[in-house]
Design a protein that fits this description.
Elements: E1 10-16, H1 22-25, H2 30-34, E2 63-66, E3 71-74, E4 87-93, H3 100-109, H4 119-127, E5 137-140, E6 166-167, H5 190-209, H6 215-238, H7 245-250, H8 266-285, E7 290-295, H9 312-336, E8 343-349, E9 352-353, E10 365-366, E11 370-375, E12 383-385, H10 404-414, E13 424-426, E14 429-431
Parallel strand pairs: 1-7, 1-8, 4-12, 5-6, 5-7
Antiparallel strand pairs: 2-3, 4-11, 8-11, 9-10, 13-14
Helix pairs in contact: 5-6, 8-9
């Protein structure tokens, strides 16, 4: 239960796997334009992940001001222009590592090592369910595969197992694996399913009564019971076929194309990310507490993530146009339905990218500063909090950066939770999402 009056009831977390470039999307740096192509000089030793200390590299796309706030956005995320006055940008977020797996863990779980609960699992544990027929925490991965660490990013770890994220693939024939019997013949039908569930419930209860302290058993029973209820509730929640055409168009959902080109392309990214954003809205409407939407899978070639070492324009372009269309539609859709005021939207990635070039067209990892943005759920509208330095290399005020602990503390605060009091005793330690850190970012709380 909330510990004080919440501003929000639910969260939609948009995660860009592979490290999206703040410099080419949200954080315009005139100095990079002025000195483009000249030898980069950071004024201090720089540890690059690869050979990423080439000449200064200006933003790949032009920037323009949008909204009453006049926020500068790259043309590749211009679809966010109509909703930019709903958003709060944080340009001085810092990480701890330039390694994808560790940095993704940090943003997703608050720790750099495996074995800690995902943010959605903590929210599920702290607040419980709003709909017993659907999971409390749902994960919508990239359709091509998981990002770094895969399911460990949304695992319950030492929390009761029922708080782990449930994976759903919107648009797939089998959106939720193993939910339905599949090719089981005529001997499995509605009546046989009901009878089987009743028998299993009776057996489970008897088994559990003799093992009252086994949390794993309790979670397994709960998962089976939830799966039975989801067989009725989930198909309706995931069915977008009755959404009006104007809504599908707003999200960029393509109803005609059957096969996509081999090359990464904007239309495909809009379609897949837009589907996930629309399903996220439908899920939170029906009581799901926390929905995590992923863009980008793990490393591979050709690139299908945000890890643009070789060519920012080639990779970031389609991915950015895809997420921007879906995210903008989501914000507008939630607002017109009266849901934005009590839904927090958080956009993040594991780290940023360097202001210097790599191989002429790419950018190396930059864990020293990057951008997050939030909207809805008690977030101030149309503001910028924190700045990066003139190069977008580190925070302008290096002594007072924003950390992931601050982001997590703020989201929990908006949900009515004191991040220092949401704890779970594990191996003799009172663990929490924010470890021993974190402050609420008052500058973005309305």
């Amino acid at each position: 239960m909330p510990q004080f009056a919440p501003r929000a009831k639910r969260v939609i977390h948009l995660f860009m796997g592979g490290a999206a470039s703040h410099l080419d999307l949200f954080d315009f740096k005139p100095e990079l334009v002025k000195y483009h192509g000249q030898k980069s000089d950071f004024g201090e030793p720089v540890e690059a992940f690869q050979d990423g200390l080439g000449p200064w590299m200006k933003p790949v796309w032009e920037f323009q001001p949008y909204g009453q706030s006049g926020k500068l956005l790259s043309e590749v995320v211009a679809d966010l222009g109509p909703v930019v006055d709903e958003m709060a940008f944080i340009h001085n977020v810092v990480g701890k590592t330039g390694v994808h797996s560790q940095a993704t863990y940090l943003q997703a779980t608050g720790f750099q090592l495996p074995g800690f609960p995902g943010m959605g699992a903590w929210v599920s544990y702290g607040l419980g369910s709003l709909n017993e027929n659907l999971p409390t925490f749902v994960v919508l991965p990239d359709h091509r595969g998981f990002a770094s660490n895969g399911p460990k990013n949304w695992d319950a770890a030492f929390l009761p197992p029922q708080h782990a994220g449930t994976i759903i693939y919107p648009g797939n024939d089998n959106a939720i694996q193993d939910l339905f019997p599949g090719r089981a013949g005529d001997f499995i039908n509605g009546r046989s399913e009901t009878d089987a569930q009743q028998v299993m419930a009776r057996i489970n209860r008897g088994h559990a009564e003799a093992r009252v302290d086994d949390a794993r058993l309790d979670a397994r029973i709960r998962s089976y019971e939830l799966a039975a209820r989801m067989q009725l509730a989930a198909p309706e929640a995931l069915d977008i076929s009755h959404e009006p055409d104007y809504m599908l168009d707003a999200y960029g959902i393509d109803r005609a194309t059957k096969t996509w080109p081999k090359e990464i392309n904007a239309a495909e990214e809009r379609d897949y990310f837009g589907r996930k954003c629309l399903v996220a809205r439908r899920l939170i409407e029906r009581g799901v507490r926390f929905v995590q939407v992923w863009s980008g899978n793990d490393n591979g070639f050709p690139r299908r993530n945000w890890d643009s070492h070789e060519d920012v324009r080639r990779d970031h372009g389609p991915l950015a146009m895809g997420f921007a269309r879906g995210a903008a539609a989501l914000i507008q859709d939630l607002k017109q339905r009266g849901l934005l005021d009590d839904t927090v939207i958080l956009w993040t990635t594991e780290f940023g990218r360097m202001p210097s070039s790599q191989g002429g067209k790419g950018r190396d990892h930059n864990p020293y500063v990057f951008t997050n943005w939030l909207a809805g759920g008690g977030i101030k509208r149309g503001v910028v909090y924190g700045e990066s330095d003139p190069w977008g290399y580190k925070p302008l005020d290096r002594l007072h950066p924003t950390t992931v602990y601050d982001i997590h503390a703020t989201v929990l605060h908006l949900l009515g939770i004191d991040h220092e009091k949401l704890t779970f005793r594990h191996n003799g330690i009172d663990r929490r999402l924010t470890d021993v850190h974190g402050e609420v970012i008052e500058g973005i709380v309305g």
